[in-house]
Amino acid sequence: MMMKRLIGAVSAVLMAFAVAPAQAADKVVLMLNWYVYGEHAPFYYGKAKGIYAAEGIDLEIQEGRGSAATTQAVAAKTADFGYVDVPTMMRAAIKGAPVVATGVLLQTSPMSAMGFADKNIRKPDDIKGKTVAITPADSMTQIWPLFLKKTGLKESDFKTVAGDGQTKLNAVINGQADLLLGYVMDQSMKIKDATGKDVYPIKFADYGINMVSSGIIANTDYVKANADLVRRFMSATTKAVEAAEKEPKAAAQSILDANPKGGKIDTLTQGFELTIPLYRTAETKSKRPFQVTDQNMTDSVNLMVEYGGLDAKARENPKAFYTNDYLPKSGS
Q1: Which SUPFAM superfamilies does the UniProt entry name for this protein (predicted)?
Q2: Closest CA to 214 of 33, 73, 15, 24
């Protein structure tokens, strides 16, 4: 009799487990900095490979319309996380926007002056006598004077044409400009998609201009209220980046699987491969993604104050703009 009761009790427990609904995954919205391109591959790959799901996260990826707009969306809590240009976020945060970087992925600047490879413009001195296309007030144009200072160039050494992002691309594609200011893994791939021709970038970072670029941001109140979820999201995103680094073409393909009009596999792959070296500096080469150093952030703040329109009071507490507290430890 006791055995029957025991079996009955165990069966009841097992039945309860069988009918109990699985705990629902947390819905999370990640808004990108712009329309999808190769740099975004890890997020799509992480979702496709079940890395976010394994952390109990149901991830929705939304395209953005610029880092400033995405930062505003995160500040307003219409997106849970944003992937943005961190210096752009700094400018919003110093003015009171409740946002913080929970991980800085691009720790080396992707800024460059680029033109068709067959024009043989390979070093700053080659820019003399050329025409450079710029977008006034964007992040690259703000840092451009520092590049000129570092390389000994003067504004009188070249001509400039100005326009929005697409106008800038068209100027180079149509031969109205020899170079444009752009990111090594973004505009260069757009030009190659349009023309089939290779582009050569003169990287700002090669001339002593190193500052952080893209990272994950969240609303400061959201972080406080959802500490465990933020940790799980950053853990999943770290693993997604590490997995994508090992399989660049598969990671790029995951973009097209989710968005068939998201580009071409060759340039998405190449764009992502150009992004990977930007993940780490000499100081973080042995660390997992997102582990930015205090010195890198302090140097970036100082550069932004001097050249990027960031309020000087930002120098008082660079740590107010970022935290590494929600990143996974080594091996976890």
Answers
A1: Periplasmic binding protein-like II
A2: 33
* pLDDT tens digits, 121-172: 999 999 999 999 999 878 788 889 999 999 999 999 999 999 998 999 999 9
Question: What span, in angstroms and rounded, lies between the C-alpha atoms of 131 and 184?
Answer: 19
Say how far apart CA 199 and CA 118 lie, in whole Å.
8
Pairing of strands 159-162, 99-104: unpaired
Query: What is the C-alpha to C-alpha distance for residues 61 and 30, in angstroms, rounded to an integer?
Result: 5
* Residue 331 φ then ψ, to 5°: 85, -10
Q: What are phi and psi of 279, to 5 degrees?
A: -70, -25
Q: Which of 42, 13, 29, 104 has the alpha carbon at shortest distance from 301?
A: 104
Per CATH, 27-109+211-320 and 111-207 having the same topology is answered yes
DSSP one-letter code for 25: P
Q: Report helix, strand or coil for 90.
A: helix
Residue 48's contacts (CB-CB under 8 Å, 6 or more residues apart) are: 254, 257, 258
**Domain at 27-109+211-320, CATH class:** alpha beta
- The whole-angstrom separation of Cα 97 and Cα 75 is 6
What tens digit of pLDDT does each residue of 266-305 get?
999 999 999 999 999 999 999 999 999 999 999 999 999 9
Phi/psi of residue 97, nearest 5 degrees: -65, 130
Exposed, middle or buried by CB within 10 Å (0-12, 13-18, 19+), for 22? exposed
Domain ranges of the chain: 27-109+211-320, 111-207
